[in-house]
Amino acid sequence: MAATTCTHQDVVFEGNAVGWAPSGAVTALSLHHEHDPARLPTSGVGHGHKPTGRYVLAAGRAGEDDGLCQAIPAGALKPRVTYRVAGWISVAAAAASDEAAAAAEEGAAGHPVHVSIRVGGRAVDGGAVCAEPGKWAELKGAFRLTEESLLLGAAAVVHVHGAPAGVDVKVMDLRIIATDRKARFSHLKDKTDKARKRDVVLRFGSGEAAPAGASVRVVQVDNAFPFGSCINCEVIKVPAFADFFTAHFDWAVFENELKWYWTEAQRGQLNYADADRLLDFCDRAGKPARGHCIFWAVDGVVQQWLKDIPSNDDRGRAGLAAAVDSRLRGLLGRYAGRFPHYDVNNEMLHGRFFRDRLGDAVAPRMFRDAAALDPAAKLFVNDYNVECGNDPAATPEKYVQLIRDLQRGGAKVGGIGLQGHVANPVGEVVCDALDKLADATGLPVWITELDVREPDVALRADDLEVVLREVYAHPAVEGVVLWGFMEGHMWRPDAALVGADGVANEAGRRFLELRKEWKTDAGGRVDGDGVFRFRGFHGTYVAQVATAKGKMLKAFTVDKGDEALVLDMGV
Questions:
Q1: N or C: which end of the chain has fewer CB within 10 A?
Q2: Which pairing describes strands 122-131 and 11-14: parallel, antiparallel, or unpaired?
Q3: Number of helices and strands (H, E) in the chain?
Q4: How far are the Cα atoms of 144, 177, 336, 456 from residue 79, in angstroms, in the given order?
Q5: Tell me, what is an example of a GO biological process annotation in this record (predicted)?
Q6: Closest CA to 147 of 494, 493, 459, 465
Q7: Which residues of 110-142 are buried (b: 16+ CB within 10 A; e: fewer)?
Q8: What's the whole-number mean pLDDT along residues 5-19?
Q9: Bond preceding residue 293 cis, omega within 30 of 0
Q10: 137: CB partners within 8 A, 6+ apart
Q11: Residue 440: which of 448, 451, 432, 450 has the closest Cα?
Q12: Would you say the C-alpha torsion 491, 389, 135, 169 has a positive or negative sign?
């Protein structure tokens, strides 16, 4: 795939190499130049130019809050604008410091380095990287300021900090850029057309039998690209929720009811009644459901009885392994063929509960055993922040490495889940993550838990559109599932698309407008060769043809394909 490019540059801050000052306990700042082209990074995502090689080094840092800072010109930052933070960061141990050398050796796999925007005593996250010694990590942060924060009147300052004490921090070409979402949307038009549309030729006869001049109307009934939402046992009882879900979504996922802590909160006491109830609701509505999730890797969500199983000896580990096996056989044995997707071991980039106790080999074994129990299901990895560029633990590169490790262990990874719990999304950053995942793995991607948190509903609508247009334009993405949509029934506040009364707010209306935009409605007349041509989104259609003999309706499907789809309509 082509490298992600920035469609518009409005640079409001460009870190001057001589403008940096120490922040906190820093021995010295010094200017350097990376002369070896082989050590320079490639052009960045939306940065606007190639790296200069000039960087500033903060040496002798006493703690993680220490680093370097630079003032942003007064009046440069505006409220309600999404800003990109771009540049490159590296780390190095000071040669004369044993403490630094030990920290650098310990952090050979990388140290987290953060960028903050400080205004009036408040710090706003401007992005983070996992910086490795001898390598340049690209910064892909984003932030937005409120009118209240700018009214404080204090100067805004960029602050680069993080990594353990004694580890030197390098900063190259740091810039703050105002994004232009409309320019980005214009850039996505051709990409969307190529990924989601196909030329169609409808043949209505030939020669004397051709109904030349007959009126044709082609209406798309369903788009092949699915949108879904999470549901739970309480919310399906709300008529306004059920009506909106049934009318506007194609897939479901259960918010909690399939998770192990729900189906077996106490050892041996199984509860599948809630999951059965939700499956029945989906069956009646004609909606397939994702299986979320078989296991969850994060310690904080593992039920206590599992934690109480000792893992410091062979007997205890055998007991935990038996519980894992029982979970697999109980869940997939009961629901084999019912869930097209399963998230096998949720959030492995952020948790290691089972691997820490049973060894790394347990993760691919979960996939292998799940595939044996339900061969038809696609088995997914699923994690958060990968698409945001702000989490050193969840970079696209680390996700790719996790997938490859699983595959080396015999795991049949069938898809990549990006949860999509976002704020201040930037299209180029989302696209960069998708490109890296797709290019490295060749696997389909689903956005599995999308919600956009923003108190201002107009900005929430804009942010939602940024994400949806970006993922819809990307050929690797095969579906989007929202993590709820109704006020009062969502995990994150300030993310609803629909009020408690079932009426769509501005963000919800934007969602519905996009769904309408991504359906084809074409009309015209059959030409002298008995043909009607159009280009339409993939999905199911109905064609109405009005001839002297009367009107005729024909249903057909437009699948993916590079060549024109030619269909004989049989008139």
A1: N
A2: unpaired
A3: 14, 27
A4: 7, 14, 51, 12
A5: polysaccharide catabolic process
A6: 459
A7: bbbbbbbbbbeeeebbbbbbbbbbeebbbbbbb
A8: 73
A9: yes
A10: 88, 89, 90, 110, 113, 129, 130, 131
A11: 432
A12: negative
Q: Is the pLDDT of residue 50 over 90?
A: no
DSSP characters over 528-556: TTSEEEEEEESEEEEEEEEETTEEEEEEE
Q: What is the pLDDT of residues 517-541, one digit of tens each?
A: 999 999 999 998 899 999 999 999 9
pLDDT tens per residue across span 188-210: 999 999 999 999 999 987 765 67
Torsion of CA 201, 204, 207, 211, to 10 degrees: -120
**Displacement of CA 412 from its chain's centroid (Å):** 21
Pairs from 127-130 (Cβ < 8 Å, separation ≥ 24)? 127/85, 127/389, 127/390, 128/162, 128/390, 128/391, 128/392, 129/89, 129/392, 130/392, 130/393, 130/395, 130/398
Coil, helix or strand at residue 255? coil
Confidence of residue 153 (pLDDT cuts 50, 70, 90): low
In DSSP terms, which residues pair with 557 in a beta bridge?
540
Q: What is the mean pLDDT of residues 220-238?
A: 98
Coil, helix or strand at residue 58: strand
Q: 544, 533 in Cβ contact below 8 A?
A: no
Average pLDDT over residues 157-178: 95
Q: How far apart are CA 126 and CA 46, in angstroms?
A: 15
The pLDDT mean for the chain works out to 92
Instruction: State the pLDDT confidence band at 46, using cuts at 50, 70 and 90.
Output: low
Please give the torsion angle defined by the CA atoms of residues 356, 358, 361 and 366, in that order, rounded to the nearest 10 degrees.
-110
How many CB atoms neighbour CB 74 within 10 A?
A: 9
Question: How far is residue 291's CA from residue 435's CA, in Å, rounded to a whole number?
Answer: 26
Strand partners, 41: none
Q: Phi first, then psi: what are they for 105, rounded to 5°?
A: -65, -40
Helix (H) or strand (E) holding 251: strand 251-254
Extract the tokens encoding 350: 């952020």
Cβ atoms < 10 Å from Cβ of 529: 13
**Distances in whole angstroms, Cα of residue 117 to Cα of each of 44, 69, 122, 159, 160:** 21, 10, 8, 6, 9
* Tokens (6 digits) for 392: 């050193």
Give the DSSP per-residue string, 182-215: HHHHHHHHHHHHHHHEEEEEEE---GGG--TT-E
Do β-strands 565-568 and 156-162 pair in parallel, antiparallel, or remain unpaired? Answer: unpaired
Structure tokens at 312: 């410091």
Closest by CA position to 343, among listed 312, 384, 395: 384
Element (H, E) at 166: none
Q: Who contacts 105 (Cβ-Cβ below 8 Å, separation ≥6)? A: 93
d(CA 457, CA 569): 46
**Could you give the residue numbers annotated as active site?**
449
Contacts (Cβ under 8 Å, ≥6 apart) of 182:
none
Instruction: For the beta carbon of residue 97, count every other beta carbon within 10 angstroms.
Output: 18
Angle at 212 between CA 210 and CA 216, to 5 degrees: 105
